[in-house]
Write a structure and sequence with these properties.
Length: 115
Amino acid sequence: MPLVMSDNHHAIGFAYGPRGADPTARLREHLLALLRLGEADLEDFTALAWHEEPHINGGYPAFAPGQLTRHSPALRTHHQRVHFAGADRSTWPGTMEGAVTDGTRVATRIRARLT
């Protein structure tokens, strides 16, 4: 589970795979071990299964090694009137900035084709 530390009090993590959406005591044990905390140091944690959220219907993709490198060129080009945009196709992969930047890139391309 990759973790991003925001400060000394909060941690944000994303877990992938079939066992990633299993918010059990096992998750608490992993957090304690990963962050090298004692039992009393972890006050609370929240696990959210994005695919179960009614207005989201999914989560971040988890690509196998080499998959994105192999398919990225095809996803960065348009296929007739179908265009793909997203963080994983941008020069800032995996970030919100990348998603916005790539969305702008694709929107600019579409607008140029329409005018």
